[in-house]
Amino acid sequence: MNPTHAPDTTRADAERAADARLDAWLATSTPPTAPLALRAAILAATQPARPRLRDVLAALWHDLGGARMAAPAFALALAAGVGLGSGLMPETLSTEIQESDLLSLALIDDDYLAFDP
Fold first, then answer.
1. Residue pLDDT, tens place only, 75-113
2. What is the 3-state secondary structure (H, E, C) of the chain?
3. Which end of the chain offers a freer environment for a tag, N or C, measured as fewer CB atoms within 10 Å?
4. In this model, does residue 63 exceed pLDDT 80?
């Protein structure tokens, strides 16, 4: 056995013994309970706060490019919707419908046309 390594071996054995004693003590000890204020603060920090609708819309507006990009796109979409919507809307106020057609549309028998004013 080399005598130069003997002090290192005894020092390592002493450290291992101290580690084993510390591990045994830590295994038997119980940690104290946290104060209620600290516990409440930790729980409050872990639960995400629900974002307000205004903040969500502001983030969306920012992600879409802000006023420089999104405003012209929204204005164009609004104008196209109004323009195409009014151009494609069916005509609902037609005065060419005759009264007999209204009665047939209402599924009223032609026998009752005599009561038609």
1. 999 999 888 887 777 666 555 655 556 656 665 666 666
2. CCCCCHHHHHHHHHHHHHHHHHHHHHHHCCCCCCCHHHHHHHHHHHCCCCCCHHHHHHHHHHHCCHHHHHHHHHHHHHHHHHHHHHHHCCCCCCCCCCHHHHHHHCCCCHHHHHHCC
3. C
4. yes
> Is 78 within a domain?
yes
Contacting residues for 64 by C-beta, under 8 A, at least 6 apart: 70, 73
Residue 93 located in a structural domain? no
Q: How many domains does the chain have?
A: 1
Query: Looking at the predicted structure, is the pLDDT value of residue 117 above 80?
Result: no
What's the gap between Cα 68 and its chain centre? 25
pLDDT at site 54: 92
pTM for this prediction: 0.32
